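sorry for the late reply, my laptop died twice this morning and i had to redo everyting from scratch. anyway the thing you sent over, i finally got around to it. pasting the sequence first so we're on the same page, its 349 residues, then the predicted structure underneath. double check i copied it right bc i was rushing
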Amino acid sequence: MSLMLQEIHQQPDAVRHTLEVNAEPVRALCEEIVRRDIRMVLIAGRGTSDHAAMLGRYLFEIVAGIPVSLTASSVLTMYGTWPRVDASLVIGISQSGEAREVIESLQRSREMGALTLGITNCPDSGVAQVAEHVLLLDAGVERSVAATKTYTCTLAALYAIAAGLPGKHPMAEDLSAKLASTPMLMSHALEMGPEIARCMERYRYMDECIVVSRGLNLATACETALKMSETGYIVARGYSAADLMHGPIASVEPGSACFLVAPSGMVLKNLRDTARVLQERQVELVVLSSDPELLGVATTPLRVPMEVDEVVSPLVYVVAGQLIAHSLAVQRHHDPDHPRGLKKVTVTR
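ok and here's the structure:
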């Protein structure tokens, strides 16, 4: 079994542990957010961490009603300036804690008076040293280059913060309880592994594809696409179903592959409409869902074996996305643990 697959299977326990060890740090952070009347959040991250930030944006804006911006780190690292963030919470995400642009963003923001939070898996890292508050994932060493368990543990940390803030939306109701039950649901998602491996044989010679979702699971689509690119060398792109219709749909050819991530919830009707448009274009439609209607129009249905509340579905559906990427890499005879040209710590600025 590859290291990547081992770490995919470690995720239910890792997420449970991350939530447990960070209960008190999250409580203290949420108290400070309320005390300082934080009205804006900025999140810095690259690659997989940026996809976690994407979900964090949806969570804070929907659940807590706090506007969020994903930082353009080049504003600081390339152009030498930084916006006013003194009344904001600035979150830096880096599994290694050594992403230079994340460290510099946190450092400059703290100097300007912002409340700063670092989320990392490495306690002695630069991110952990410069941030005022730190959430340590404590997920264990991640040996595969492709991040899996550090991604879901980062999501869990962001969920815990959102759940600890005053709720502004129905999705905030019982969020802590739903989050606590998510590791069990992730375990059920892992049971899809053999069926996913069987179905992915059809796509082993695929050179490119799109991965589509909407809302909270836009992050899942983008992260799944990234894992396909990293480990299987597939030109995969993640899209919002809405953005797809604003131009990129024109490039979708008959017979091309589209993976549709479609959990139950508020976005399901829109994703059914998207599936019909794609079906009219005669695409190879791979549907990851528990919805019988959507599964019925799929070329390749991947049935999620349980209903998952939409608010926590990104933690569950991304497990299936990781299994899809891993299966494709192995069936294309690539080593998912050591992608060509990549290192565990990517140094950019």
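Residues 191-331 form a domain with the Rossmann fold fold (CATH 3.40.50.10490).
thats about all i looked at so far, will dig more tmrw
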